[in-house]
Amino acid sequence: MNAPKIRYHEPAPTENDAQALRRVIAGRRSVRKFTSRPIPPEVLDDCIDLALLAPNSSNLQPWAFYKVQSPAKKRELVDICLGQNAAASAAELIVVVARTDTWREHARLNLERFPTQPLPKLVQQYYQLVVPLAYTQGPLSSLGLLRKRISRLSSRLRPVPQGPCSHEEMRLWACKSTALAAENLMLALRAHGFDSCPMEGYDERRLARLLDLDADAMSIMVIGAGERAPDGVYYPQLRFERERFVFSV
Ligand SMILES: Cc1cc2nc3c(=O)[nH]c(=O)nc-3n(C[C@H](O)[C@H](O)[C@H](O)COP(=O)(O)O)c2cc1C
Fold this sequence. Notes:
The protein has 249 residues and is an alpha+beta fold. It folds into 2 domains: 28-101 and 173-231, NADH Oxidase (3-Layer(aba) Sandwich); 105-154, no CATH class. Helix content is 43%, strand content 12%. The protein is built from 9 helices and 4 strands. It has a 4-stranded antiparallel β-sheet, sandwiched between helices. Helix 3 (71-80) packs antiparallel against helix 9. Flavin mononucleotide binds next to strand 3.
């Protein structure tokens, strides 16, 4: 396929930051005990801003971050997190939410705020035609299921995207991008000298009630954050041999 003609140029950054990145990635651990030192608000906001730079499907940014800071709500959230120490001792608790109900509005914002003008025709077509065609599911996923049938048949002839073809698959779609943002957030905290613990050990139903989340907003993890206590990491990091996971085909 011929690449479309694009006039914009953004050269690749020339600095080599691999060592700094390695320190941040390898230094991140799941911390279960934090000190009482607060995270300065501007640091937390910078980390969230870096989370928002994560790559995401069709630039539709299907995420939300809830900083749970009211003392009453925080207490309740610790309880919802089953009283885990990583939550109870955290200076900050951030709930990371994947949303399936914002893509239409975000498609419109992509059109309105596209950074190069005049709006490239391909971009216009993408957000006005391709995106609605790909993500509209219809009542009881009826449109999605119809699309699934058509794309299965078409796939015999040529490569065709096979989803998302239901409301459930939209949740997975939103979770993929949102999980990348969550990782950005945790790495950014480490880069600022703070630490984190991602948690899925919580009562999702109660958390939805606490944050008034409807069915289109799914909490994917609660991130406890703060300064690592000297005994905040319980075990050395364990990963299995790379041959188990990495394949050349
Ligand atoms: C989706 C997800 C859910 C997790 N849930 C919990 C949790 O509820 N409580 C907890 O203490 N750690 C939780 N963890 C942390 C993992 O236990 C931890 O990442 C893993 O043991 C590897 O350790 P490391 O993060 O220090 O490398 C979770 C991690 C992920 C990615």
